[in-house]
Design goal:
Among the domains are: 13-83, no CATH class; 90-162, GMP Synthetase, Chain A, domain 3; 175-233, no CATH class; 241-304, no CATH class. The chain is 29% helix and 24% strand. The chain contains 12 helices and 18 strands. A hairpin with a 2-residue loop joins β12 and β13 (247-255). The chain is flat and about 155 Å long. The N and C termini lie far apart (140 Å).
């Protein structure tokens, strides 16, 4: 193990401790192992230990145990001493100093206008370092904040960003089950939760009901996932169609705990056991259920996908080629007609563009043609050709 101080590398000797002590800190979900040279540490006693943050005070969860006897892994950090009165008094005073440091940090965050939500402030036992935990959606540039905090608190400052699940573990809360959050009560690490776990348990995919205090999927979905996978193995999917006792049904619900399934069609609804659903029901693909015909018999339409499931059924294959009628001496289209049509179309478009558009013009309505009236009107017809012929004859 190498550490770097002022540009030089030094090697630290790994010390083997004959005893191991389980120590739990304040607001910690799990205990941590520390090494000791003797078995003087007993359960319930307070000890001062060395951590990555510095000196901290914790409570022993059990008596010191032999490393060789129980085959425990060798701890890296030691137990410094059993806590005395001065250590306990300093531990109590740190609570007051932490509240003051929290207030100072909150004021500086507000004055600088940083987008971060401060959660807690924690001092080491000797108050040489203070740790601020905050929540933020993105990375925050807190270099100016460190300068202001160092000038007011006069100690080492460390800022740590956490996520929503870590915040729920730190703050705690009551879940929909009425109990304290699992991450706060006993969980030591976060499991990977996916929406497929809710599908395996046949739950309604409602994000609000499946989310916990942190806004993520609830950790309890992981607890029964393996059992549901085992119990639903070999069962058809929800909403699929099966053939049971000569009739076609659709699976509308399944209760894995009661080992019961609900099948229904347009005529009836039945409940069967999951064992019968596995062994007697046959999945069907491409079956479309219809209502009863006039004769009272149900109609079903079977697609080609279902026909492939019966290999014994003979299939007729026609080897005759389809006949195609071909016209004799087909006349090609004349390009002159197409060009003429295109020119007439272009001319009509240009005329439509040049025509003035009236703003208040009304669209012509499709009115019925007026019926001819019964009145007789005098109509004069001018025939210029006939008049000219009469003039020539008079001459």
């Amino acid at each position: 193990m190498t550490t770097e101080y002022n540009g030089t590398e030094t090697k630290e000797e790994q010390v083997s401790y004959p005893y191991s002590v389980a120590v739990r800190f304040r607001d910690a979900a799990k205990p941590y192992s520390f090494g000791a040279f003797d078995d003087s540490v007993k359960k319930g006693s307070y000890v001062v230990v060395e951590t990555a943050q510095g000196l901290e005070l914790g409570k022993a969860e059990a008596d010191a145990m032999s490393v060789e006897k129980y085959g425990l892994t060798m701890p890296q950090k030691p137990v410094i001493r059993i806590a005395g009165e001065a250590d306990l008094r300093a531990y109590e005073d740190n609570g007051r100093y932490e509240s003051d440091a929290y207030r100072v940090c909150a004021e500086e965050i507000e004055s600088l206008g940083l987008n971060m939500n401060l959660l807690s402030a924690k001092y080491t036992l000797d108050r040489s370092k203070v740790l601020f935990v905050y929540l933020a959606e993105q990375r925050v540039d807190f270099r100016e904040l460190l300068k202001h905090l160092g000038a007011r608190l006069h100690c080492r400052i460390e800022l740590r960003q956490i996520g929503e699940r870590d915040k729920a573990k730190m703050v705690g809360g009551i879940g929909v089950c009425g109990m304290e959050c699992c991450c706060r009560r006993f969980k030591n690490r976060f499991d990977v939760i996916s929406i497929n776990m809710a599908k395996n348990q046949l739950l309604a995919l409602n994000t609000e009901k499946l989310s916990g205090m942190c806004g993520k999927l609830m950790c309890c979905l992981k607890y029964e996932d393996d059992d549901y996978k085992q119990m639903t193995e070999g069962l058809p999917k929800m909403g699929s169609q099966v053939e049971y006792e000569g009739n076609i049904y659709r699976i509308t619900s399944m209760n894995v705990m009661n080992e019961e399934a609900k099948l229904e069609n347009h005529e009836q609804v039945i409940f069967i056991t999951l064992k019968d659903l596995r062994e007697k029901a046959q999945p069907r693909k491409g079956v479309v259920m219809q209502r009863r015909s006039d004769s009272g018999e149900p109609k079903t339409v079977i697609n080609r996908t279902q026909r492939k499931e019966n290999p014994d059924q003979p299939v007729h294959v026609s080897m005759e080629l389809p006949t195609v009628k071909v016209k004799e001496n087909p006349q090609p289209r004349r390009p002159e007609k197409r060009e003429a049509k295109k020119e007439r179309r272009d001319d009509s478009r240009q005329q439509a563009k040049k025509a003035p558009v009236q703003k208040n013009a009304r669209r012509p309505q499709n009115r019925r043609p007026e019926q001819p009236s019964s009145e007789v009107k005098n109509v004069t017809v001018r025939t210029f050709g006939k008049k000219k012929k009469e003039q020539e004859e008079s001459k």
